[in-house]
Amino acid sequence: MKLLVILPRFPYPIEKGDKLRAYHQLRILSKYHQIHLIALSHTKVSADDFEKIKPCCSSIEVVRLSWPGVAWNLVKAYFTGLPFQVGYYFSAKAYKTVEKAIRKFEPEHIYCQLLRTAEYGTGHRIINTLDYQDVFSKGIERRIPGVKGLKKWLFSLEHKRLLKYENLVFDRFTNKTIISVPDRECIPHPGREEILIVPNGVDHAFFRPVKMEKTHELVFTGNMGYPPNINCAEYIVKEILPLVHEKIPGVRVVIAGASPHAKVRALASEFVTVTGWVEDIRPSYAGAKVFLAPMQLGTGLQNKLLEAMSMKLPCITSSLCNTALKAAPGAEILIGDDAGKVAMHVINLLQDQELNDKIAAAGYDFVHRNFSWEGATRNLLRAISE
Asked: What's the pLDDT at 98?
């Protein structure tokens, strides 16, 4: 089948969750379908990055989004009522590229990743699929209490628009997918049970246990320009780490990931290392004794937890994250919803090697049983092939 895939970002390098999902889905879908890829990008895609994706696609087009164009699109979105998340990525140039590709390649199916590309995938009389992936409206709603003034007003406005838009686009797509059941329940449409669950997976051949010297006790990973990760990094360093130090002085934490926000960079100290982008994230995992992801904001399935479990690290997270993951609390993962509880788990894992090994082994078995990219993409393959 000829499949037109529209992405809001070029799927390489893989430093964001949506790019990770897109990369592995392209890799698997390309085994069964002929893919024409259209990806939006603010920057020029390097030849090396282009070559990484080329084997998955019969053709690739990258549409550059200029900053003046984005600014103008946001102004238009304000007056037309589109969510800013959608307006930001919508350009007349990209829409013309999509129309031209449809005429040239005559795709039998259009696959759009995230609400950000939904406007490109409708109105063509072609079977289409939208990957909601995450529930943007819920993510924004959770951030509203933490902001003030104009930002609070803008977030509240965006929340209302996203709720309306998530409901509206439901009826414009033949198929809808999302990352987890809890996320599906947040979609404001009476037919949300129709949405297919397409979770993320993990590359177990890449993220596997590695024996190396432990250079730090704790690690937290992710895109450190992403607000929920910024929030979590501050939570770990400012609220959890001091409690750990009361019992075990000198515990060190590594915060590893691309694009660290100024707030994250400011956390660096003799006990806190902020790496920024690393070419290979695995040594950050393997050099630690415990993985922390006690997320307070955000939605969806956390890839970082899947990767850490696959590398046989004991993991501590929040109920918010485990709602999508569904690991067994106290057996396959440890849950802490306040700083005191998380700190207690950290101390126990660092002082009790038998407990550390037990949680790590159970988490490793859990993620191998439940999460692979091939298994995760099965529902998407079925929907596109029907």
From this structure: 97
